[in-house]
Amino acid sequence: MASMPTLFISHGGPDIVINDSAARDYLETLSEHLPRPRAIVIVSAHFETNGVAVVTDPAPGMIYDFGGFAPELYEMVYPAPGEPRLAERVFAMLGEAGLEPSRLAERGYDHGAWTPLKLAFPQADIPVVQVSVDPSRDAAWHYALGRALAPLREEGVLLIGSGHITHNLRELFPVMRGGKQADPELAAHVDAFVEWFADKLAEGDRDALLDWKAQAPFASENHPTDEHLMPIFFAYGAAGEAPHAERAHASRQLGFFAYDSYLFH
């Protein structure tokens, strides 16, 4: 069986599934560029715990972790099954790596999980295991989560980190609501940040990437909190020692909210 790539997705808001956008188009065609996975392990920025948790739920429900969006979004269902046996394997692998995981017997799919999966794998016939982030831990810790699970790639398991390459909602929401214009200086700060990441990933500069808060330009402006960037470090670590990073998608919402996604081979 061919080794699977790993994937980082900038998942957007829940309305990505109903609004036309380049990011939606990318996700809808994503499966055409991948071997069919036998299962998916996904780390969502919207699944936060103290330490790392693994969901063992055989039939996850839905979590509509958002407000003020179109009513139809609250009626959508992504009925992909869980896979408790794989979840137990994930739990064991994380434990063997010294990461002290916990189990969560019941948890539904938050929008960081179900919206990209609904677009990329709409048949919902691939089992999914969910793994959490811990916003109190750093990039190196989330990278270690990925490294611990990297062997699953040889077994047809697709490892996905679902977050966002930039995530300054304090700037995004006023522009979306029409109350202010996008700040050209902010757009320049986004450009600098995402291009720094693209360059360091292309160079394979792991040390710089794991030290992003100190080295990346305008880090705090692009990520006032860290949780939405942590999934990229999971995906990067899960791809092995020296992966090739492919910038598979790059688009913007309102000129400054970046949707970069990466495949790691």
TrEMBL record:
E.C. code: 1.13.-.-
Organism per entry: Neoaquamicrobium sediminum
InterPro entries named among the record's database cross-references: Extradiol_dOase_DODA, Xdiol_dOase_suB
Source taxon at top rank: Bacteria
GO molecular function, one term: dioxygenase activity
Record has Oxidoreductase as a keyword: yes
Requisite cofactors: Zn(2+)
Family in the record: Belongs to the DODA-type extradiol aromatic ring-opening dioxygenase family.
Keywords, ordered alphabetically: Dioxygenase, Metal-binding, Oxidoreductase, Zinc
Domain Extradiol ring-cleavage dioxygenase class III enzyme subunit B: 30-246
Name under which the protein is recorded: Class III extradiol ring-cleavage dioxygenase
Pfam families given in the database record: LigB
Tagged with keyword Lipid metabolism: no
